[in-house]
Amino acid sequence: MSTVEFESSRPLLFPEGGVSTARFRAAMRTTRPRLALVSTYSELCGIAAYTRSLEKQLSDVFDIRVFDLNQYLLRSTHGRVRKFGDRHIQEICRELKDFDAVNLQLEHGTLGRTARDIFRRFGWIVRAAPQLSVTFHSMFDAAAFDYGKWLKAIARFNFAEAAAMRGEYNRAHLLSAGIASRLRRAQRFKPVAVVVHTQRDLAHMKYVHGLRNVYDHPLSFLGDAEARRIRRAANRHRFPILDIVPSEAKLIGVFGFIGRYKGFDTVIRALHHLSDDHHLLIFGGIHPNEIRSHQPIDPTVAALFDAGYVDTNVAERIRAAPAPGTPTVSVAVDGSMRDLLIQHPKDLSHRIHFLGATSDDEFLTGMAICDTVVFPYLEVGQSSSGPISQALELGCRVIASRIHTFLQFGKYHPAMIEYFDIGNHLELAARILARPQYDAATRRLAFNVETNRAVYLAANGGKSRRATLCDRAAE
Q1: Nearest alpha-carbon partner for 216 in 380, 450, 447
Q2: Contact present, 89 and 125 (Cβ < 8 Å)
Q3: pTM for the whole thing?
Q4: Helix crossing, 360-369 with 224-233: angle to 10°?
Q5: Domains of the chain
Q6: 52, 105, 189, 234 - which has most CB atoms within 10 Å?
Q7: Which own/partner contact pairs does 78-81 have at CB distance under 8 Å and 24+ positions apart?
Q8: Residue 294: is it exposed, middle or buried by C-beta count within 10 angstroms (0-12/13-18/19+)?
Q9: Residue range 125-160, pLDDT digits in tens
Q10: What is the DSSP string of 140-185?
């Protein structure tokens, strides 16, 4: 947890016998409305990074305290630990009554692993907050249950499939319509606002769930001054792993935790169609929640190795398990084929570099040193992506897959993102080789940290409260 304290940017002069600087600052803190940010904070995740940025954006208006959600307690399925998770949320709720406003950064999984745990704990926060805003980082689809498909599964005596269908629907319904219903009821009795990251989600909240006070704004992290500072200080020597990369190499970067839906293998396949001076940098590691006991290698990492022909040779590829019905191939090796048993000619291991999970500062520096930043994600219904926002703010050349998330994001930042079809590595390679479609030097973001700040002031009553404080100061 952390508390943002007021710091004057200029020296303060006090008359002889006046109040001390410490007491003056304490008095100034009491004149600002208190805002509680309920979120992950110490974790290496996108929500925590956004919360840290939001804390900076609002610290001159609010006296902020961040309540760090303990992920060990909240995501455990052990009966005893779950009770400690409930107690953790209840302790936070007891303190929320002392704040003027509360903002919950809602990524459903940060409140628990099961839908009932998430819904119960969310309800406690809603009741405890005197004034509430909820930032939705993902949305669940509240589509009607497919009874036809469910009955067909029962007719085939496939009860496990039918139960899974019903369970999946119940979870999605509880975390969409159920949570919206809680907020709708709360709006009758106190100020409640909702912040989403796309125009599509705005319409969904207003017209499907009937919520009022809904604001939309893309994720925003960096102001112009901070972005310039990062770019000026960015240098490849910050990363010792890159010492072996030729200085003239063209760097392609992908960012975020490694997962199937990130589509990093698409970039590796594109790398086969690029010249040897193109190198791929992967900034990110396996998400801590995906680490499995006794697993020698994560399947997603293994798939990346497979796409890059890493640690394999021609004979091994030929002798890989054939499809049923295909003839078996035998390989006779003579002296001229000896090299094929040592390394596959398409092996890209010398052009793929894993930088691992990094700090926020290293993450941004990594973007700044890349010639091209690629977001090859698959469509999984996400509402937002922090890294693509940061890349635009840093002035990077951005190429992204044509998924709903990035198309919605592009509505806020038109003529700034180059798109390619999901999984089309040939189109991606061609775009990387082509001249940039848009000039980053002329880029001006209409939606930025200042407009994001204005949204959160409106959602948390900051404007009216600040005006009241100014009136009191004038008196």
Answers
A1: 447
A2: yes
A3: 0.81
A4: 70
A5: 2-218+449-474 (3.40.50.11930), 224-311+347-442 (3.40.50.2000)
A6: 105
A7: none
A8: exposed
A9: 999 999 999 999 988 876 778 788 888 888 888 888
A10: ---PPP-HHHHHHHHHTT-HHHHHHHHHHHHHHHIIIIIHHHHHHH
Summarised one tens digit per residue, pLDDT across range 386-413 is 999 999 999 999 999 999 999 999 999 9
Bridge pairing between strands 250-255 and 372-375 = parallel
Secondary structure (3-state) at 445: coil
Rounded (5°) CA angle 351-357-361 = 100
* Contact assessment for residue 62 and residue 33, using Cβ atoms and an 8 Å cutoff: yes
Secondary structure of residue 388 in the 3-state scheme: helix
| Rounded Cα gap, residues 319 and 317, in angstroms | 5
E strand residue ranges, 231-367: 250-255, 278-283, 352-356
Can you tell me the distance from the alpha carbon of 304 to that of 134, in angstroms, rounded to the nearest whole number? 37
Number of H helices, E strands in the chain: 19, 13
Tokens, residue 170 = 């119940």
Interatomic CA distance for residues 421 and 387, integer angstroms: 19
What are φ and ψ of residue 442, in 5° steps? -100, 10
What is the DSSP secondary structure assignment for residue 258, as one 8-state letter?
B
